[in-house]
Structures are given as structure tokens and as C-alpha cells.
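Incident log entry.

Two folding requests arrived from the same account within the same minute. Monitoring flagged them as a possible duplicate submission, but the sequences differ. Recording both here for audit purposes.

Request one:
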Amino acid sequence: MVRDLAGWDPDRLPVVLRWPLREGLLAYLAQLRSEAARDYRLRLTVWAVLAPHQGRKGPKPPQPPPILRG
């Protein structure tokens, strides 16, 4: 988790380790939301490109992940 927050930069590890726990957890949650949003947009784009070619019974659009719903 700390490496992820530091952007895999070993020079930033000590800085991130000095963050208060709440700040670290909120930053990690924001990062998870950002990654989930990026993944969802990609899945939605793929669905939008393929859906017209799959007929009426094609797959439904992907649902947003739970982390983005609330």
C-alpha cells in the first residue's frame, strides 16, 4: 500500500510513511476509486464499440463497481 501511494518511487517512501494514518488511507481510497473509474470507462468503451454488432440479445452494459456507486 505504501509503495503504491509513493508511486513506486523509493525516494518517496519515507515521505509517505510520515503521513498520518487517516491521510494515507484516504489517499489510497482515492487512488482505488481512480483506478476503478479508469477500468470502468475502458469496459464501457469496449461494450459501446461491440454492442451494435452483437444484435438485440447482446450483452448489457457493464455496471459500475461498488466503490464508484457510493
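Request two (distinct sequence, not a duplicate):
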Amino acid sequence: CEDIKKILKHLQEQKDSQCLHVEEYQNLVKDLRMELEVVSEQKKNIMKDMMKLELDLHRLREETSAHIERKDKDIAILQCRLQELQL
């Protein structure tokens, strides 16, 4: 009878210990899920920012190209005037 009580006590201690481990693991899983949510939100925001930056880059390239075209035309006009003045 005493041996059975010892065994039962030991089993109860093991059960209590395992319950603590289960609770710790559940808390870890909960923390990881929350961290995953945060990281997912950060990724979403980074992707939005990248899309905005790509649009800005595209716009700047178009503006630069148009600016270069205008300057090339201005140079051509000035070269024509210079040739006229040299005649």
C-alpha cells in the first residue's frame, strides 16, 4: 500500500511537471503566433513601401527622360542659332 502511494505520488509529480511544460509550450506557441503577426504586418508594410518606391522611381525616370528631351531640343536650337550667327 505504501509503495502504491509512492508510485501515485511520483506519477502525480510527473503529471504536474508535464502540465507545467505543456503550459510553457502553449505560451511559447502563443508568443510565436503574436510575433508572426507582427512580422507579417511589417512585411506587408515593407511591400507597400516598395511598391510606392517603384512607382516613384518610374515617375522620376519619366520626368528625367522628358527633361533630357527638352534640354536636347534646347541645345539643338542653340546650335542652330550659333551657326546662324557664325554665318
